[in-house]
Specification:
The protein is mostly helical. Helix content is about 80%, strand content about 0%. The chain is globular, with a radius of gyration of 22 Å. The two termini are about 40 Å apart.
């Protein structure tokens, strides 16, 4: 199976940070130079183009590398904003369906379909989530790899969440060439690939490696959160809770019940918006306590 090392992820992360810092530094230096030239009365149209317009082009190119095509679409942005606050209600489903009916371009239509599947999954409506994912046209994944990775991440995560490990492995066999290619491209794609691989290694019974990958990803996600501090939306809090829940499952399968208990206790309050995943957290918590009880008796 595909694997991603910490060294590989670190290298891609540093490359991304270099791109960001270079773009920001170029912008700042250009503005400073232009101000100095203005004070010296040395500005002209060519200098304006070089020192103001060119940095804007560079910044736009850097953003294009970091913000995948489709996510900046007004329809997708509106749906993203709506479900960032409310992601389990009938209203959330209706908003996504309304935007989906207006979507014409492949990136918009596919992303909104994935949103629809994700809301169904958060609601515990597994059959509806699978039905939505089955409508996705996979022919555009090569042109839009981030969307392709989101699709495979959703379907692998969905089957893992219900314990259908045979379906996880079948989906992985279909996705493997695509995941292998994406894991080499850039930090964002590699990071998303690792999230999918965690599901695959767990489904294959290699729980130790699944835990190692999960802890590695937790480290990088915590680092990214420090790099770009921002407020947490209800959806972001929920997804963080899902990470804790996934970490708790990995610790549990490796027999580290103390660490599993700590992680699931952190997950519980964060996943309460989804009765499906809250029940999953509660059942895992009960299983952990039972294991700990047996250890104490021994």
């Amino acid at each position: 199976m595909i694997d991603v090392t910490r060294e590989q992820l670190e290298r891609l992360y540093k490359t991304q940070q270099t791109v960001i810092k270079a773009a920001v530094g170029f912008d700042v230096c250009s503005v400073i130079v232009y101000i100095i030239l203005m004070l010296l009365d040395k500005t002209n149209l060519i200098l304006f183009l070089l020192l103001i317009v060119l940095p804007l082009i560079v910044t736009a190119a850097a953003k294009k590398k970091l913000i995948p095509v489709g996510f900046s679409s007004p329809l997708v942005s509106d749906a993203t904003n709506a479900i960032s606050r409310d992601f389990t209600s009938d209203r959330a489903l209706n908003i996504i369906r309304s935007k989906l009916a207006q979507a014409g371009k492949y990136p918009e239509k596919t992303l909104l379909t994935l949103y629809l599947a994700e809301v169904h999954m958060f609601r515990g409506e597994i059959d509806q989530a699978i039905a939505a994912l089955n409508t996705v046209d996979r022919s555009g994944f090569a042109a839009y790899p981030t969307i392709g990775l989101s699709f495979y991440g959703d379907i692998l995560g969905l089957y893992k969440s219900i314990g259908d490990f045979d379906s996880v492995m079948l989906a992985y066999r279909d996705a493997e060439p695509f995941l292998r290619d994406c894991s080499q491209r850039n930090y964002i794609l590699c990071q998303t690939t690792v999230d999918s691989l965690i599901c695959v290694y767990a489904a294959a019974g290699d729980h130790r490696h699944a835990l190692d990958l999960r802890l590695m990803m937790n480290d990088f996600k915590n680092r990214s959160a420090k790099d770009i501090p921002q407020g947490q939306t209800p959806l972001q809090i929920f997804l963080r809770g899902m990470t804790f829940l996934d970490t708790a499952e990995a610790f549990y399968e490796c027999g580290d019940y103390g660490a599993a208990a700590q992680a699931v206790d952190q997950a519980g309050p964060m996943v309460t918006p989804s009765p499906f995943f809250l029940d999953k957290a509660n059942r895992l918590s009960a299983a952990i306590r039972e294991k700990q009880g047996k250890q104490n008796v021994q």
